[in-house]
Design brief:
binds magnesium ion; alpha/beta; binds adenosine-5'-triphosphate; four-stranded antiparallel sheet; 10 strands; six-stranded mixed sheet
Length: 257
């Protein structure tokens, strides 16, 4: 275990999910899932609505407790972590949702600078300088003083990504980051995610049905259904030559969406 519970670079997989089970009451959502994610890898997670994709992401950063199994992130077992260790895992994990979740009463700059100031104790001037740099890197430096309601959906999602990056995460979890956007904005946001990975190289899990993005950025793709992994393969193989009939039907359905 790392000193102070901080997540750290490991020689083995960066994330290790072992026989994870999770139910809500009598509803079994995750039913014995196991997989690893290597350091710096981008994993695309697919599956029909309600199959547990968001739940799995929330379990990975300890927002949800699991009922059985282990989730090890950067050497910390999230399933058995103390509250101090969990806090470190959350601080080192960026989570970007479908619906942006920006603070509406704060400027873009403040949205990004808030967590470094409040959680890391960074001086406000440093956090604001960092926020300006991150806005450059997501391509909207001119929006620093705007409020979220005056931004397009694509711009809001860029702010959400910059806000996650402000905590210098070692793991980024994206939950359908483009599904609330129109096709043009989708492409913009996918480019930003691609750029973030090129520049920062952190480990990423992306819940998305964007096949072009998945094939060009992800190293692996996985289909989950009924709480189990149906198929897991290198991204290109997964989308172009899936082994399982279920995956073939799923890929066909998203092509036709
Ligand atoms: N907090 C909760 N309490 C009770 N049931 C929940 C809770 N969160 C999720 N569920 C249920 O767990 C199942 C999996 O939900 P989850 O949101 O993980 O699915 P998903 O794969 O992300 O779906 P979608 O593609 O629609 O986002 C669903 O049946 C959902 O209704
Ligand atoms: Mg979901």
């Amino acid at each position: 275990m790392a000193a102070g519970g901080a997540i750290h670079m490991t020689s083995g997989p960066f994330v290790s999910i072992r026989d994870v089970h999770k139910s809500y009451g009598s509803l079994k959502v995750i039913n014995g899932i196991s997989f690893d994610i290597a350091q710096g890898e981008v994993l695309v997670l697919c599956g029909p609505s309600g199959c547990g994709k968001s739940t799995l992401l929330r379990c990975m950063n300890g927002l949800e407790r699991i009922d059985g199994g282990d989730i090890i992130v950067g050497g910390v077992n999230v399933a058995r972590a103390s509250s101090e260790e969990l806090q470190h895992v959350r601080m080192s994990t960026g989570l970007v949702f479908q619906n942006f979740n920006l603070f509406p009463h704060m400027t873009v700059l403040r949205n990004i600078a808030l967590a470094p100031i409040k959680i890391k104790g960074m001086p406000a001037s440093d956090a604001e300088a960092l926020a300006h740099l991150l806005l450059e890197s997501v391509g909207i430096p001119e929006k620093a003083d705007e409020f979220p309601f005056r931004l397009s959906g694509g711009q809001r999602q860029r702010v959400a990504i910059a806000r996650a990056l402000a905590m210098e995460p070692k793991l980024m979890l994206f939950d359908e980051p483009t599904s609330a956007l129109d096709p043009e904005m989708r492409e913009e946001v996918l480019q930003v995610i691609r750029h973030v990975h090129d520049v920062h190289g952190m480990t990423m899990v992306v819940v998305t049905h964007e096949i072009g993005f998945a094939k060009s950025v992800a190293s692996r793709a996985m289909l989950v259904e009924s709480g189990k992994i149906v198929e897991e393969a290198p991204a290109r193989t997964f989308f172009e030559h899936p082994k399982e009939e279920r995956t073939r039907r799923f890929v066909q359905a998203i092509v036709n969406e």
